[in-house]
Amino acid sequence: MGVTDLYILYDVADSIATITLNRPEAANAQNGALLEELNDAWVKAAEDPEVKVIILRAEGKHFSAGHDLKPDPSTPTPAKITLEDIYNIEARRYLEFSLRWRNIPKPSIAAVQGRCIAGALLLCWPCDLIIAADDAKFSDPVVAMGIGGVEYHGHTWELGARKAKEILFTGRAVTAEEAEKVGMVNKVVPRADLDAETRALAAQIAVMPSFGLRQAKRAVNQTLDVQGFYAAIQSVFDIHETGHGNALSVSGFPVLVNLNQMKDTIKSVN
């Protein structure tokens, strides 16, 4: 199915496709191979006429620690990396993939536990519904890297303007309960019940007519797009890339990490 088929599990039963992040030893951090496999799984579910609902879940303690900042053997690195190189890679894997998953004409549910950090938001936010375990925490601490937020900038839409600014300015995590209050999360459940609750919701949706589900999803997504969602996501991605440009000019690397400001986040996924 994917580039290596190492990091993603895929299963279909009772009209429900379950896509599982399966890199728990690295807190499901996203290298290039994982994201390519994940996209293949989404496309497979979208094209399968037997699939009516898609679940995205993760093995291990954490949903995902975000982008893997270690060298990625699945992505060839030029001798001299440029902003254009970074832009092309991120436009595909972070922006285009997330928008594609968002617009798949089938309902999707993300089941989130533990930490959901930065790039992990690019995985759960494109889903139509989010069920969170009571230990889930959502954060985007990349301002500490000199970047204004992750590539798929759904913050304002998901959290509201002031809450979005708060988590970006401070780097702090939003708890599952806070996320439910602002409407980012549909339901908070005990960690032990996360898979069962998500599956039950998917089963409830799966009995509905496929065409009706498609039209309902399209109606809501298009309403958000008319309000400016799609244009904002596209334009803020370019703003995001200026952060990499600044880091390249300062240090010669695409990401300038302030480890002192990020130490609590880093410790939390160990």
TrEMBL record:
Which Gene Ontology MF annotations are present? isomerase activity
Q: What is this protein called?
A: Enoyl-CoA hydratase/isomerase
Query: What protein family does this chain belong to?
Result: Belongs to the enoyl-CoA hydratase/isomerase family.
Tell me yes or no: is Isomerase among this UniProt entry's keywords: yes
Q: Enumerate the UniProt keywords alphabetically.
A: Isomerase
Task: Please indicate if the UniProt record lists Isomerase as a keyword.
Answer: yes
Quote the Pfam families the UniProt record gives.
Answer: ECH_1 (PF00378)
| InterPro entries hit by this protein | ClpP/crotonase-like_dom_sf, Enoyl-CoA_hydra/iso
